[in-house]
Amino acid sequence: MKFKSFITSALLAAVCNAVPAPVVTQISDGQIQAPTGNVVTQIPDGQIQAPTGEVVTQISDGQIQAPTSVASSKASVATGGAAQGIYASQASSEYGSQVGFYTGADAPYKSNDASINLSELATSFGLNSAVNAIHTAAPTGTESGAAAPLRSSLVTGSTTHGPFSGVPTTIGAVTTVTLGLTVPTLPLNPTATYYNTDGKLTKPEPAPYTPAGGLGTNGSLPRYMVESDFDYESITLGLYQEWIELDTFNNGLATFTEEDFAAAGLSNEDRELIRFMAQQEEGHATLLTNMLGHTAPPQCTYNYPYTTVREFLDFNQKLTRFGESGVWGFINHLDSREVGQLLAQSIATEARQQMAFRQMSGLFPMPVYFETGIPQSWSWTFLAPYISSCPANTTRLAWQNFPALHIVNQPNINRWSANDTGANEVTGERAADPSISTIPVEESCENLNVTGYSCGPAISRNRSEPLSFAGKQVNFTWDAPGLAVGPNNSYTTSVNPVAGEPMFVAWAAQLNLTYTPLIKTSPNSGYTYQPAAQNYQGGEGIVNGTMFVALTDTDMFLTPFNLSMINPHVIALGLYQAG
Ligand SMILES: *[C@@H]1O[C@H](CO)[C@@H](O)[C@H](O)[C@H]1NC(C)=O
Ligand SMILES: *[C@@H]1O[C@H](CO)[C@@H](O)[C@H](O)[C@H]1NC(C)=O
Ligand SMILES: *[C@@H]1O[C@H](CO)[C@@H](O)[C@H](O)[C@H]1NC(C)=O
Ligand SMILES: *[C@@H]1O[C@H](CO)[C@@H](O)[C@H](O)[C@H]1NC(C)=O
Ligand SMILES: *[C@@H]1O[C@H](CO)[C@@H](O)[C@H](O)[C@H]1NC(C)=O
Ligand SMILES: *[C@@H]1O[C@H](CO)[C@@H](O)[C@H](O)[C@H]1NC(C)=O
Ligand SMILES: *[C@@H]1O[C@H](CO)[C@@H](O)[C@H](O)[C@H]1NC(C)=O
Ligand SMILES: *[C@@H]1O[C@H](CO)[C@@H](O)[C@H](O)[C@H]1NC(C)=O
Ligand SMILES: *[C@@H]1O[C@H](CO)[C@@H](O)[C@H](O)[C@H]1NC(C)=O
Ligand SMILES: *[C@@H]1O[C@H](CO)[C@@H](O)[C@H](O)[C@H]1NC(C)=O
Ligand SMILES: *[C@@H]1O[C@H](CO)[C@@H](O)[C@H](O)[C@H]1NC(C)=O
User: Which residue stretches, if any, does this entry annotate as coiled coil (predicted)?
Assistant: First the structure.
């Protein structure tokens, strides 16, 4: 490991159940259950599926319906056009089809892979065709059409990193008059009744090709500003997240050498991707600042958990996971649709960053059908421990910091045998701390070149021996509340007074919250078994990828749009490296 001596260049700029109407089927994920004829099946919400073994699985819409096979109908459509000779897709069948039942789908593709003559590849790359073009340049300064400035455009100052060692000048989350300890459940909104029975329009269209309805579609001017305390606190949290990403992406590039990256299998082109991702964060930080106004927090000082490139990558795939999931958790609850629109367009980029860091870590890029959403207090819990201090007068947050849930046998992504992971094989105590990469070479997958066992950077990697699997025992320890965390150690971890003893492990992944019983082995340790629940019958397992686990005193039924109601019952919160 070669470190450059302490970071010289860096970031300045740091300014900167209701009973529905008779024909309405209420389904939490919007999926329409195909009615037969005009009959619409009414599904009671809040159904709890009978537990398999010890696993208590809840389903949010009670829907279990085998659709008619889409694959077979596609195949029969495709058969019609297939009588035109031998196609490339048939030629490849000697390697075995990837989709066993998908037959009769031969298509007239060119088969060119066998005919490439490599000695004919280009070898000189000088001037080529001059295409039609004009001279044009982006307007700048006060010119018409010039863009607004970036809040943090240049990396020109010096940075410091590491833990905070001072005394906080203020303590605790932003708060005001509090009306209760929990938010009670209410009946279904009486206006939530729309159901289309015949596929025709039910109301006049305001204009051609313009079905009635939608929010922000009546011609009123958009206002791209937060519209409530909820919006303000959510976007401020998002800005704290963008700032650390901007710094950490740059930090890896600044503190590891080209050789360090090469040893981790990453080229200069890959480093360029990381550099560009940091620049994306400049844009995101500016956007969120603009939607907040002059109290938008500036960049802070951070304390990172990595000492190798592999650990840097692992940290980033975790950091961007809770950054992305944190936004999915609140984006549709925002009062301002305009803010939600722009935020969605930035979080789509963050989602790509998360996948790129997984690929650089040799993890399967996206092992889930659905990315999950988590409450703001969850992402703040994960983020705060990595912020060591913020400048005086930095706007503070209203979200909760939960006690940390430590996964003792967190699978080490750097091992070819995840089963061999020892206790606490992570670089530290914080939830997103990466797996230790400095393990014996014979145990490491990093430089292996064996399909199913290698974990060097790749578009995709199979793991013959999975990181985790249904039924695996997962051991935990957890912190008591009352610890100082976050910028200037000025926030305190807490548990809502309504929460009782921890009884369950809540697994938040994909569209689902699945509970398993917690077996306590001491007041602050215990274990459970990874659940086998599927998001849809016959679909993949819910628990996969980088996901979230909480200790709770209840197995209350929650779905993606009311997940934050779990917060008063959360006793500790962790991040689980499934896969
Ligand atoms: C959360 O929403 C689901 C409907 O999707 C409902 O069945 C459940 O009761 C709600 N939970 C609470 C605690 O309100
Ligand atoms: C997962 O969530 C989806 C969408 O709400 C639901 O249809 C499905 O039944 C859930 N699966 C389980 C096992 O709870
Ligand atoms: C490949 O291209 C080289 C250079 O044009 C030629 O000499 C050679 O015969 C070609 N090989 C085949 C198999 O076509
Ligand atoms: C237009 O729609 C918005 C919500 O998107 C609503 O607040 C506003 O009252 C509507 N304006 C008119 C004139 O109906
Ligand atoms: C602190 O923040 C408040 C509110 O944003 C602002 O009015 C005040 O000028 C700031 N003070 C300093 C010293 O920056
Ligand atoms: C946090 O600590 C830093 C470094 O000691 C200090 O400059 C800053 O003013 C502190 N921030 C607050 C809000 O106290
Ligand atoms: C998990 O906990 C169980 C029961 O306390 C123990 O037998 C087992 O060795 C632990 N496994 C790991 C990997 O720590
Ligand atoms: C990992 O542990 C599980 C559970 O004991 C076992 O079934 C599996 O075979 C182990 N994997 C390997 C590759 O030994
Ligand atoms: C990996 O193994 C394959 C098959 O043995 C070989 O073609 C390839 O060159 C090897 N790659 C490296 C980087 O060693
Ligand atoms: C990759 O994993 C899948 C699912 O486990 C398996 O069916 C497939 O054969 C594996 N492919 C390779 C190349 O190992
Ligand atoms: C997790 O995803 C990987 C990659 O798609 C897959 O091979 C594995 O079987 C999945 N694990 C579970 C428990 O579904």
Answer: none
Q: Which helix (H) or strand (E) holds 387?
A: strand 387-389
Q: Structure tokens of 449?
A: 């070149």
Output the DSSP codes for 39-66: B-----SS-EEEEETTEEEE-SS-----
What's the pLDDT tens digit per position in 422-457? 999 999 999 999 999 999 999 999 999 999 999 999
Place of tokens 């969605």: 344
**Cα 449 to ligand 9 centre (Å):** 6
Q: Cβ contacts of residue 506 below 8 Å, gap of 6+?
A: 513, 514, 515, 549, 550, 551, 552, 555, 566, 570
Please give all residues whose beta carbon lies within 6 A of any atom in ligand 8, as ranges: 419, 465
Which ligand ends up closest to the CA of 123?
3
Ligand closest in space to the Cα of 118: 3
Pick the closest to residue 274 from 324, 327, 320, 235 (CA basis).
Answer: 320
Q: Which numbered atom of ligand 8 lies nearest the CA of 465?
A: 13
Residue 449 burial (10 A CB sphere; 0-12, 13-18, 19+) = exposed
Handedness of CA 418, 424, 428, 430 (dihedral sign): positive
Q: Whose CA is nearest to atom 10 of ligand 1?
A: 558
Q: Residue 150's closest CA among 44, 299, 307, 255? A: 299
What pLDDT, in 10s, does the model give residues 409-423? 999 999 999 999 999
Q: Are strands 519-522 and 525-529 parallel, antiparallel or unpaired?
A: antiparallel
State in Å: Cα 526 to ligand 7 middle: 9
Over the stretch 289-328, which tens digit does the pLDDT of each residue have?
999 999 999 999 999 999 999 999 999 999 999 999 999 9
Place of tokens 């700029």: 13
Contact call for residues 379 and 325 (beta carbons, < 8 A): yes
Q: Pocket around ligand 2: residues whose beta carbon is below 6 Å from it? A: 28-29, 57-61, 63, 511-512, 533-535, 559
Q: Would you state the structure tokens that stand for residue 431, as one six-digit string? A: 């939830």
**How far is ligand 8, taken at its centre, from the CA of residue 417, in Å?**
9
Ligand nearest to the CA of 33: 2
Dihedral sign for Cα atoms in the order 183, 213, 204, 41: negative
Strand partners, 547: 576
Three-class SS of residue 520?
strand
